[in-house]
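so ive been stuck on this for like two days lol. basically i have the seq below and the ligand is zinc ion, smiles is in there too. i just want the complex predicted, nothing fancy, no docking runs or whatever. if the output looks off dont worry ill sanity check it later, just need somthing to start from for the group meeting slides
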Amino acid sequence: MADGLKRGGTRLSTIPRHTLWVWCQCGHNGGVTVSSLLDRPNVPKTVGELVAVMRCSRCKRQTIKDYVITYSGGSWEALQGTRKQDG
Ligand SMILES: [Zn+2]
């Protein structure tokens, strides 16, 4: 349990600021922030459960080949809060 992000068993509610990147068998890949997933009504509890039900937006199949979880650090939100948009 040394690794904070043990694959599969990580609870989504504990990593709202992370981004889940998934690769499909067809070669398509994409990332989604966990926080955006948590807003949905029926969300799997763990990363493993989520990946199991994810569907590729290109081939429409549930053939996730691999996935990785990255930490974005919430820097975007911090930036929004402290700086004004200048275009
Ligand atoms: Zn696909």
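Residues 12-73 form one domain. Residues 24, 26, 28, 56, 58-59, 61 surround zinc ion (CB under 6 Å).
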